[in-house]
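Hi V.,

You were right to ask for the full record rather than a summary. Here it is.
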Amino acid sequence: MNYADSERLAAYLDSRGFKLGNDVYKTDVVILNTCGVRQAAEDRVYGLVNQIRKYNEAAQIVITGCLSRREDVKKRLSDRADIFLPINEVLALPKLLDGKKFQPRFSLEEIRLEQGEKYLDILPKRSTSFTAYVPIGNGCNNFCSYCVVPYARGREVYRSAAEIIKEVRGLIAAGYKEIVLIAQNVNSYRSGSYDFPKLLAKLAAMPGKFWLRFFSSHPKDMSVDLIKVIATSAKVCGHLHLAVQSGDDRILKAMNRRYTAAQYKKLIKQVRAARPGMAVTTDVIVGFPGETKKQFANTVKLFREVGFDMAYIAQYSPRPGTAAYRLNDDVPAVEKKRRARILNDLLTKTALANNRRYLHQTVEVLIDGRNRRGKYSGKAAAYQTVSVELAKSKKTKNQIGRGAGADLIGEFVAVKITKARPFGLEGILAE
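Predicted structure:
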């Protein structure tokens, strides 16, 4: 989401006469679009501000994103950062940089909810010509006890379906190959007669050769209708990111997740039954306050039963303002690391087993760059990173009709998988 917000902010500043610099130590203005979901991300911001201020004393430093509303962050950076501005108020940034007084249009949540997120109407300055992030909304209503996002971004506000459809139609016409719908919780989307399944089906029915992805989904909002769209729409990638956070019901309740481990596992079975081979990735937190070894064992059990393709394993860190911040952070850091290591070791095994199913198969890959060894790399529809070698035969050199020297970045190619790794695949350009 921050990536997409930054693209819109860059486009807006371009339109107001600003020019993008390439060195934070020489530019007049440095904007940090911050994340505060984990303490490590917050600490990185403090380090960056210190470095920038040390080597670029004259720069105006702007803090936007998730840390911009935090009073403790403002106090800590008051003598080093110049402007704190929530992302949905960035239209006022040029005035602030000119030293003019500014009354935030969207500082009141009621006004924001009524008028929507005006900054999302800005056409972004996209970083690639083949993958596009399309925000369908901003904010969150879930109030998971560990999560700062509802406080940092406010309540859920969604763009109109007409606006989203118009943007995606333009992207397809411009030749974009991968369109990623994003929000804090995409599957709670509502706009007029549209819910998320209807919106996704509408976009998937558009003519053209492109992939559709979406992040992130909440298990409590995974409906039968959405599973049906995933199962029947070939343009929707065979990859679902569905955060579980814990495999223990008491911990899930303490997290205010509003589902049980059994309900989560049932959802995964339904999705995989509807679309065989569906890759499933997740988020999980270890060391939540009060989590016992027995409760952690339930998370291990869930990992074994589900067999995730990837998991983003976070060690719990208290976030100011959240309900869990008032709880005793009683799981020692060394124990959090041990639990994370156990899950990571298990994940390595299940991910490798899942990826081995692709050996000797030909899969479609969207090439997005070259790696350090000079090989092409890209993503499969199921979200694995794929390292691609060009086959050595003369036939292969011209197989995509663009000649031996053609640049494959931004192209769909067929790749025969020759090697499976836990978190990636390797293959050769198929003939």
